[in-house]
Predict the structure of ABC-2 family transporter protein.
Amino acid sequence: MNIYKIQATIYRDIREFFTNYAVLTLLLMPPAMAALYGTTAQSAGEKMPDVMIFVVLGTTLSAITTNIPLMLYAEENEHGLLKLVTHTRQDLLNGLLGRSVLTLIITGAVVIISIFIMQGMHIFSFQLMTGFILAAIIFLNLGLWTGLYAKLQSTSTVYGVIVLFFLGMTPIIETLNLGESSIISGLAGLTPVYQLMAIYNNAGIMPYVILAVWLALTTFLVWMVVSKRTETL
């Protein structure tokens, strides 16, 4: 691990985060959704439903924690920039670590801003924070995995939309009244954001077990793609 190369990646990505319009759009999406939901609830004179807070949390994880590294790596792959700055496995790992640290910090900041807008800070507890950290790493791993595989930015858009709708915004299913026996509800109940809802509802140890399985699986996928990319350096 080279701390200077990690810092260089962070400084380079900070500039990219705030000058790339596509990235800025992703950064603004969760606060915009929070403002929309919050205004709607206030206009109706009702309390914000907890499920909508988790929709915003899931959107933040998928839009920022997954899609930003996915988009940046796909762009670098398409233009050959990643090969220019990566000559060894260590270079690749330093870049991954630097981008991951910045992405997680930005994710945390956007979550705090969005939840504050929705007046939903009451949902947080030590248990939920622990689950959220695990979920953030899982979504980050998905972004790194798909980003290193994606050769084109158009491909990254497809991957990003899949993660957003099938993993990030799954709590919306709660508003469809499908019933617990529904296959869709059953599958959604295995997704990371649903585990955060289960932790919030004091569902015991099982949500952590499911998150641990997701974490192990996504970490393995990142290890596989790093090994594959290393062969071509």
